[in-house]
């Protein structure tokens, strides 16, 4: 004889709380503020250096040297430092966007260079191999790519 489990409810899996320390959107680029303090400019350079720790999972090269990062600045809002990054992908259909977002959050917020990270996915201009830095080209050649 089998036991009747029709009244049993499936266990409830609670969703993880949304990470408020980072956000991303696919609405395109945000405009850089017209005025930045010297400190904010220096902080943006720091954010760019930490973004070099973000590796494109398909190519194995960092997103800065691949030319995927279009603009970076730092804003202050309610006493929090927000790093804003406008960037693109090698393909709009990239299935690994969440991997790049997670790496960027870990690199920028994890380093303490910002309290929050805002990634804005930009599609114009479209990415092309001409956007790769010379360092990126050297890295790609070392991996066997002809660039």
TrEMBL record:
Superkingdom, taxonomy of origin: Bacteria
Record InterPro entries: Fe-S_Maturation_MIP18, FSCA_dom_sf, MIP18-like
Region: Disordered, residue numbers: 1-41
Domain MIP18 family-like residues, every copy: 46-109
Pfam families in the record: FeS_assembly_P
Name of this protein: Metal-sulfur cluster biosynthetic enzyme
């Amino acid at each position: 004889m089998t036991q009747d489990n029709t009244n049993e409810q499936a266990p409830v899996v609670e969703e993880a709380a949304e990470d408020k320390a980072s956000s991303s959107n696919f609405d395109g680029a945000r405009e850089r503020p017209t005025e930045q303090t010297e400190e904010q400019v220096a902080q943006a350079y720091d954010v760019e250096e930490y973004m070099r720790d973000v590796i494109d999972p398909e190519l194995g090269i960092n997103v800065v040297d691949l030319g995927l990062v279009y603009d970076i600045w730092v804003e202050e809002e309610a006493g929090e430092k927000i790093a804003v990054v406008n960037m693109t992908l090698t393909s709009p259909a990239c299935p690994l966007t969440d991997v790049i977002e997670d790496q960027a959050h870990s690199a920028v917020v994890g380093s303490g260079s910002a309290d929050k990270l805002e990634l804005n996915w930009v599609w114009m201009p479209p990415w092309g191999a001409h956007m790769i830095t010379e360092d990126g080209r050297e890295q790609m050649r070392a991996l066997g790519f002809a660039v």
